[in-house]
Structures are given as C-alpha cells and as structure tokens.
Amino acid sequence: MGSADSKLNFRKAVIQLTTKTQPVEATDDAFWDQFWADTATSVQDVFALVPAAEIRAVREESPSNLATLCYKAVEKLVQGAESGCHSEKEKQIVLNCSRLLTRVLPYIFEDPDWRGFFWSTVPGAGRGAGEDDEENARPLAESLLLAVADLLFCPDFTVQSHRRSTVDSAEDIHSLDSCEYIWEAGVGFAHSPQPNYNHDMNRMELLKLLLTCFSEAMYLPPAPDSSSVNPWVQFFCSTENRHALPLFTSLLNTVCAYDPVGYGIPYNHLLFSDHREPLVEEAAQVLIVSLDHDGATPTVDGTTTGTAMDDADPPGPENLFVNYLSRIHREEDFQFILKGIARLLSNPLLQTYLPNSTKKIQFHQELLVLFWKLCDFNKKFLFFVLKSSDVLDILVPILHFLNDARADQSRVGLMHIGVFILLLLSGERNFGVRLNKPYSVRVPMDIPVFTGTHADLLIVVFHKIITSGHQRLQPLFDCLLTIVVNVSPYLKSLSMVAANKLLHLLEAFSTTWFLFSAAQNHHLVFFLLEVFNNIIQYQFDGNSNLVYAIIRKRSVFHQLANLPTDPPTIHKALQRRRRAPETLSRTSSQEGVSMEGSHPAAPAEPGTLKASLVATPGIEKLTEKSQVSEDGTLRSLEPAPQQSSAEGSPASEEPSQAWREQRRLSSASAGGQWSPTSEWVLSWKSKLPLQTIMRLLQVLVPQVEKICIDKGLTDESEILRFLQHGTLVGLLPVPHPILIRKYQANSGTAMWFRTYMWGVIYLRNVDPPVWYDTDVKLFEIQRV
Q1: Nearest of 35, 82, 83 to residue 58 by alpha carbon
Q2: Contacts (Cβ under 8 Å, ≥6 apart) of 757
Q3: Could you tell me which of 230, 224, 209 has the C-alpha nearest to residue 292?
Q4: Where is there biased composition of kind Low complexity (predicted)?
C-alpha cells in the first residue's frame, strides 16, 4: 500500500474515533488495528493527522475510547517486547504505537482528572499474562515503561543481533543479558558496535516516548518544597527495570563518545548526513531527566556490601541512575566522560575559526546540566576534573557561552547554569590554581584583547557581563563576584587589562547612588574589597599590575572611607539617580579593541520563545562559608542553627549575615519602596575591610610619587618595575584567614534546575513539537 493510502486510512481511523459517541469495545480489533497495523506513518505524519483539538474532544466527549486507545497501544508494545519483534510488521506496529502514544500523552497529563489513569490497573492486564488475577495486575504506566526498556535492547530492532543464523534460533528476549548489548563503548563496556542507522532511529523513537512519559513533571506547578518525585522516573530507574544499568551506560556512553566532527575529517559532515546526532540529543535529554533527584548528594565510596548488617549506613539513592552515576570511580572512565563533554562543549567554538568545518551541535545546555549532575553527585569526578588542567577545557566553552548570551533575554537560563557550574568549581582550591595557566587558545570572543592567564579571561568576561549584559542578569552579580573572591587567593599574576576591569567594577559599584539604591548593592563592594585583600595578602609578589591599578584609582578607596551618611546627602544621591538611571557607568572603562573575527553579543530576535524560570536563592542560601586552615583544609563557619547570627559571628563579619539587621535599619516608605537611612549606611560602612589597602597606599604612594618627581616620569614601566621589586613584608596587617564560599545544595536550586531543564527540553523538541501548545504548568512560555 502506498504511503498516501496509508496516511488516508490512518486519518479515517482518527476521524472515526473522534466522531463515535458510543464506546468501542477493546475486543474490536478490526477497529483498533487501523491505528497501527496497516499504516506506515512517520512521527511527523502522526502529529499532522491527529490534531490537538481532536485529542481534547475525545478526552472530553468519549473518554472511554481514549482510555481504550492508550490501553491497546500499550498492549501492542508489550506484545512486541514479549515476542522480540522479529517480523518487519511487528517492528512497524511497535513504532506506530510509540508515535501515537508520544502524541497523546501530553493531553492526558494536562488534565488533572486523567493524571491517575496510567497508574490505575486495567482489568485483564495481569503480570502473569492470561491469568485474570486482579491483585497481580500492573498499572498501565509500569507495563509501558518495562516494554520500552525491553524494546531498547531488542536484537535486530534496536541492537545488533549476536546470532549469525536464521530467525528461528533468534535470541530469547527474556534470557538475553542486555549488559552484552550496551550501545556504545565507554564506561564499563569496551566493545563499540557497528553504527546502524535503523537501530539509531528506532532507539530515538522509543527514547522520545520515554521522555514524553517523564514529562508529566511539566504539568505540575513548581512546588516550593520540590520534593515531589516523578513516578515515571522513579519506577523506570528502580530495580523493577532489569535493564537499568545497561541503559544508563548506553545513554552515557552514546553522549560522551559522540564526535560531531565527522570522524576527524573537517567538512566531512557536508558529505555524510549524521544520523547519530538526533539519537545523542534524545539520549542526553532522557539522561538528565532520569537524574532529576533531590536528596542531598549521595556520598558513595564505591564499596557496598549486601549484608543486612549495614542498615546504619544509608543505602545509595533508590534511583539507580543516580546511584550508578555516583559510583563511577575508574580514572579511565572519568577521562572518557570529561574528554567527551569537553569535546562537545567546545564544538560551537570550533565553528568560529573554521566556519562550517564541523557540524554545529545544539545541545550544549543539556550537556551543561549533565556536567553539573556529574560534579554534584560524584565528588570523585569533581576532584578528577580539577586534578589537571583539563578543567580549562570546560571553563573556556562556558565563558564563551556566557559572553555570547549576555545580551540575549531568551538565554538567561544558560547564563545561570554556566555561572552555577563555575561557582561549584570555585569552591575547590585547585580551580584557582589551574586558572594561572597562560591562555593562548584564540577563540574569537567579543572581549578586549589581552595577554595573560585563564584567570584574566574569566575576569574580563565577568566584567563584560556585568557592564554590558541585560538587566535580568543583575541577580547573578553576587555569584560572579563570589567566584572571583573564591579564586583570588591563588591568582599569581593578573594582567593590566584584568586589573583595570576589577577597579572599574569597584568604581561603578561604589558610586553613592548605586550603593544607596538597593538594600543589597553594597555587598558587591565588600566582595571586591575582599578580592583585593586576598591578592595583596597572599599574592603580592606577582601582582604589580593590580597594585599599580589600585594606586592609580586610590581616590575610589578614599571616597569609600569617607562615604557620607547624613540624610540630605543620601537623598541627593538618590535624586541624581532618578535623573540618569544608567545601569552602570560604561563610559569610564577604556574598552580595548575586541578580538578579530568576533561578533558582538546580540539580543534575542523579537518573538523568540523562552521558558520562564523560578527565582534562584540569594548567595547566602546558595553558599556556605568555610575558612581555609594552615594545612589547606576547610572548616565551616556557618553558625550553628540554634545560635542567632547576630552574636558569635566571626569578626570578619560581612554583609550577608547582617542583612536582616539592615532590613530593620532601612525604612520601607509607604509605597513599599525601599529607602536607605543613616543608621543603615553606618551599620555596614564601619565594616568595610579597607585597612590593608589603606596601609598599602600609605606606604607606596609617597614612594611612587617620589620616583615620578625625581625622574620626571610619566612612564608606567618604570613604576611597575619598582613595584615588582617592592615588598610590604611586616608593613601590612596580619593576613586574614582565607574565606571560601562553597556552593551548597538546597531545595531552591533543585527546583530551579528542574524548571530550567524541562524548559530547555520543551523548546528544543520542535520536530515533532511534542509539548507545543499544551497547558504546561511548570513554567510559562513567553515571547521576547
């Protein structure tokens, strides 16, 4: 039968279904088979021939027919999994049912009355097929998920058969050990099967159905406690699924082994179409959704014993995907994962200096979520990443994405996850140390040209985000500066460009109108002063550029020390702001020429769709303060829960602990508009950590002025030479202990990741548009 005929017959069946007012019996095979038995429709056809309005009409007007359709489609998948899909006809039926369910499921999820449908048992669908014992009946959802799992390891359908002979001796699907059929070499599997286009496409269709099952999460509003477990993921990743381990490994290896370059030959993708990419995208999306797990980081050291004796030890997480991920521990596995993710994240960068030489991948956001989960759930992986300079292969692409997306409203989520990853990494000393490696990779980026290290690159990009990103990024400023504070004690030598950028930020953040215009703005000044103090106290010797920049901009520090606190001046500063609500002074920073070949960061095209995000927790909730001891170990400084934070907080108390106090001191005027008071300004002005810098200026400024007068100098190289050889040993206050603010998991970020991840998946699945125009509740779809 031609494909046009088959489409026509399928459409006729759909029309019959929508017009029948009487329930159709489940036993009426002649009717139900029209949907899958004699048709060869692509997934795009199914979406076109089953319009949303008709699915909703059947749901409202003849619910029993919609229920039977779902039940029969699942039954066909179960039969296919039982038989092993040997004939072409069986394979076609499985694919047709899979496409139909992918189309219908979102409309079942969007109606709260239907939500329990898949979790109810269907008479006659017993676990022991054929026996009608009701106790044994499985919920429809479980039958569906187990069938999909079996079908993903079905010889000659989704995996290579290991038998050479004819169909009759085909592998028995029930005794088959799916661990021998893992899709790709990598973690825990050494054999790389021959690529097979049909198997890849069949896997992709089944994974799309699986992702659609998991997407019930999109139809529930964001819950503040975020502890809601996704029942589909929970069952699929439990011991009930005998394929959990090989499937986890297959997904992870398929993603990490993917090389979009086209077997290493530039421009190869122009000659060969790459059928792997759609599968890799689908695999990455199923993987990150399966790893959506809230519990605090599972600490698993890779050793478990099966005795009932160790009940005292918490078992690993119930979710086997999270469990397996947290147990990976072999160096070569870590190397494979890290190299794979770094290769894929760098792919969009390769585009810029050899345009079109490689296929440009689009799933970098999914990769960033995967990398985040790896670091968060597997501390050994995090330490491995930081052990060598390989971490820089992750850092550079992230900085590239951040710089590129800074003006684009539709990519706020990408900005956040990039910054969260850097915050997580910056909590480890090794990250700061690695940043000292010279930066020579010349990826064209829209930033000033500089010669220096990866630390300079990070500072220059952060400066660019703060001074020329859009308004919605302001909540990230705390995070960006916290990252700089965390790495500052380890930075051996900042370039002049980076040093000037840091001082420009201090200048912008310490204007009176900025300091007085919001309750939290002065935190940014505290962070920057802490950066300068760390570098002066711990890395003075190599940092003559920064010391010189501080001397040149000494007036900024004097102004801070003499910050006015009287009401009239505060009032005047705010008036000035009303007249010129410029976000930050962008003029006084001498912007160098941008790199050659770079494109300025562009705003989103008008009309671009974006998914809304929940707010992220403030920096004081996001991080936990620790002090670095002499031997390099960390000691938490968080006050014990019962102790009020007003007493007993460390002497270097900085604003994050006092902010409740400040809220009290600043008055909220009638309009709910916040307004600063003298007491409020005094409460934090007295804590500004200016002593070290003032001492440095007191000692060095007269000496520098003397050189200038003696030699009639206006030449900075001579002054820099003097500063390079200078020393402040014994002249500065006793070094303060190093404070590190480490990221700590909390329910707020867990909820943020869930909404971000599903928003990305919603927007990336456009062909077919699985969730488009359905009533999702987890986020809103907005136009820029």
Answers
A1: 35
A2: 288, 289, 292, 366, 369
A3: 230
A4: 639-658
